[in-house]
Amino acid sequence: AQSVTQLDSQVPVFEEAPVELRCNYSSSVSVYLFWYVQYPNQGLQLLLKYLSGSTLVKGINGFEAEFNKSQTSFHLRKPSVHISDTAEYFCAVSAYSGSARQLTFGSGTQLTVLP
Amino acid sequence: EAQVTQNPRYLITVTGKKLTVTCSQNMNHEYMSWYRQDPGLGLRQIYYSMNVEVTDKGDVPEGYKVSRKEKRNFPLILESPSPNQTSLYFCASARRGDGTGELFFGEGSRLTVL
Fold it and tell me: Does B42 touch chain A (CB under 8 A)?
């Protein structure tokens, strides 16, 4: 079964500083990769996704992520964060389980942007 | 407006009292799914449905039932709730269940079982 590891449960960072949220997964065979964001008291929203092609994926709100097949990683980055980026971020991996794809979420990283 | 609507948003109940959390989507999506979110565990899939009348177990189906009689609705049923089902529940939908597309989430239903 696929497993997804988000290495940091909490990341505090000052406003306008860069940030990287790390995500590693267990299987590199035919995976699709996603980052979702959850603002307080809301459901999850898609930030970006990697299906194929360029390994550098750009998403909404200035975020980007890089697919690294050899390291089975899909880290999320932003060069300069804002207070409004404070939220919980979830990495998710779609991989085959039997004959169907299953989406597995990581445990989440709480990003807190400090003034 | 495209959306996934869950009700109720908040519910406190007692052990053994049957309850249903409704979920409805207005995007004509084929795929729908239920997740529970617990601190430190992320989202875990309870049940999913690839289309009408087709449902299957996710990772944590014990104690839950679902049905998909219409494309837009996917209710989650707790026949005899227990305290370990206290959690934040999310319904989600996608155009297809092929794992490539965006999942659209409801705003969540916070359930407390006493």
Answer: yes
